[in-house]
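Task 17 of the worksheet. Students: predict the tertiary structure of the chain below and write it out as structure tokens. Keep your answer in the requested format; marks are given for formatting as well as content.
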Amino acid sequence: MFNKINVLNPWRPIIAILRGITPLEAESVSDVLIEAGINIIEVPLNSPEPYETISRMVKFHGDSALFGAGTVLNEIEVSRISDIGGKIIVSPNTNDKVINKTKELNLLSFPGVFTASESFQALNSGADGLKFFPASQLMPNNFKSLSSVLPINTFSLAVGGVDVPNFKEWLDVGISGFGLGSNLYKQGMMLDEVKENAELIVKSYDNAILEY
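Model answer:
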């Protein structure tokens, strides 16, 4: 039942969530991820100097990837991300003002949702996709029931507690993509380990998609 709608085209609908990354790691970590095939990168704003980190990534990679921020809670943060070249705004919650500002600046909006009410609120405000968080609590079967009432072309991300072994069961119920954090990158992780994690994730995702 894999949902083929991908608003992140031409790249895989996999968002790397680099919570805790520092500006000194910006170029090297993002380079490893892009080389492995993960081209959508989110730096949560509760990381050290997140705006500097995002700015460095954008300047280093240009248009070879999409960069943006997570844990975005207000309109000022949206504007700052836009000013440094970020293209993606991810939030832990559904905030109409954040979504509206994001779309006003022609950025991609992925608010956090968990219920049908939050999902429709986000879509009605113009969100490009829905971040179902925490996915480990929602679980695939519950997502399947919830998504049955949403528009058929809704782009959906499973975020929080999702890892390689879960890809197939989520794709089976129509999820569009994934946001991956600590199973991909943790603060202080060696670059070789990030590379290994990224390559495994890409290989597992591609193999799962081949079944559809």
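Marker's comment: The longest helix spans residues 191-209. Residues 109 and 127 are 5 Å apart (CA to CA).
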